[in-house]
Amino acid sequence: MAARLGIDYEALRRINKRIVYCSINGYGNNGPYNQLPNHDINCAGVSGLLDPGLYGDNAPKPLTVQVADVGSALLCVIGILGLLIRGLGGYVEVSMTEAAMLFNTLNMAMVYEGSEPTLTGKYPFYNIYKCRDGYISIGAIEDKFWMNLCKALKREDLISRKLDKSANQRISCRIR
Q1: I need a labelling partner for 129 at 20 to 30 A (CA). Which of 35, 51, 123, 166 fits?
Q2: Span 29-33, average pLDDT
Q3: How many CB atoms lie within 10 A of CB 38?
Q4: What is the total count of domains within the chain?
Q5: Burial of 121 (0-12, 13-18, 19+ CB in 10 A)
Q6: How many angstroms separate the CA atoms of 161 and 165, rounded?
Q7: Is residue 99 domain-shared with residue 28, that is, in the same domain?
Q8: Are residues 137 and 92 in the same domain?
Q9: Is the pTM of this model over 0.90?
Q10: pLDDT the model gives residue 80
Q11: pLDDT digits (tens, 9 = 90+) for 58-106
Q12: Is residue 24 domain-shared with residue 89, that is, in the same domain?
């Protein structure tokens, strides 16, 4: 559309070599999705952030943060500032889907290595539990924190079950 209107980067660069031009799109300028409309939830889905396998109940859920929108804006700011502090003009193009992928790098790396992503709420050491008066988040990633949590809950029998999905229920019952 910008090219059709005569306001694309190349047209404006001919007028001012130092122009800083920024473009945010959904799926990149190339590829099979480049002409499709999108919203944050679509980019989150394509990036793998809504993968049902990431959740304990195998049901995808919309994210409560618009990671593609916010992430792509932040990447644009970084690109623009990089050009400005060097006194250069240039073109900064950011795909919202690729920005969303940045927020999924740990899960993607684990899947690539043949492991199951662990920071998803499937396992007892990293989850949200209902309590009598609300909810509590547990992030006992390091073994020492998991061990201390189990001791505080008087459930030392769970220390060796950090990666046992069935231990979620045991922790949940103890917290209530």
Answers
A1: 51
A2: 87
A3: 17
A4: 2
A5: middle
A6: 8
A7: yes
A8: no
A9: no
A10: 98
A11: 788 888 899 999 999 999 999 999 999 999 999 999 999 999 999 888 8
A12: yes
pLDDT confidence bin for 22, thresholds 50/70/90: very high
CA dihedral 117, 121, 122, 128 (to 10 degrees): 160
Structure token pair of residue 163: 């990666």
Q: What is the mean pLDDT of residues 95-121?
A: 88
Whether 72 contacts 49, CB under 8 Å: no
Burial class for 149, CB neighbours closer than 10 Å (0-12, 13-18, 19+): buried
Say which residues have a Cβ less than 8 Å from residue 131's Cβ, sequence separation at least 6: 175, 176
Is residue 109 classed exposed, middle or buried when 0-12, 13-18 and 19+ CB atoms within 10 A define those classes? exposed
What is the span of the domain harbouring residue 156? Answer: 126-175
CATH code assigned at 78:
3.40.50.10540
Q: Is residue 119 part of a domain?
A: no
CA distances from 68 to 4, 82, 105, 108, 120 (A): 27, 21, 14, 16, 19
* Residue 151, in any domain of the structure: yes
Sole residue written with tokens 């001012």: 16
pLDDT at 107: 82
With cut-offs at 50, 70 and 90, classify the pLDDT of residue 176.
low
Supply 34's token pair.
């480049």
